[in-house]
Design brief:
It is a single chain. By secondary structure, the chain is of the alpha+beta class. The protein contains 5 helices and 7 strands.
């Protein structure tokens, strides 16, 4: 139903279903609400990484090819991004590694825009409940980490 509504937004306001004499109406808003409940959007929450208590950043070992491809595609589509790294850390209170995406770009005023775009680009490749970190390469902690790391993307 959702696909039918999305394909023809000017035609449908909802649908009426007659099930053995009982009428049930479903508006487009209702169908969208069900879709969001079944497949919730990824929530992006800015949270400063406590660099004092986190383990050092190192090369990521548990990144799916789908996520890696999404990162590379996003970087290729953005001229500002010079390099991208996928590292990992273990946050305080956690026992499994969290991937940290580090983008190297010049204009610090575009940090939020670039990170929001990256989050949107990779959200379909992430597993439900998976957390990620993002850092600009100009961050002191990140700049030290990338010195001896191999980028997953380098602008040509």
């Amino acid at each position: 139903l959702r696909n039918m509504f999305k394909a023809n937004p000017d035609v449908y306001d909802g649908i009426l279903i007659d099930c053995k004499g009982e009428a049930f109406s479903a508006s487009t808003e209702f169908v969208d609400g069900v879709e969001k409940t079944v497949h919730p959007d990824m929530s992006v929450k800015a949270e400063k990484l406590n660099t004092q208590s986190a383990t050092p950043l190192k090369e990521a070992t548990e990144v799916s090819q789908e996520v890696k491809a999404a990162v590379i595609d996003y970087c290729k589509a953005n001229d500002e991004i010079k390099k991208a790294y996928i590292l990992q850390t273990v946050r305080q209170g956690e026992n499994k590694p969290t991937p940290v995406y580090i983008l190297d770009f010049d204009d610090k005023t575009h940090t939020k825009t670039l990170f929001d775009g990256l989050a949107a680009a990779i959200k379909k490749a992430l597993k439900q409940g998976e957390t990620i970190g993002m850092m600009p390469a100009y961050d002191k902690f990140a700049s030290v980490a990338v010195e001896n790391s191999t980028p997953v993307y380098v602008k040509e």
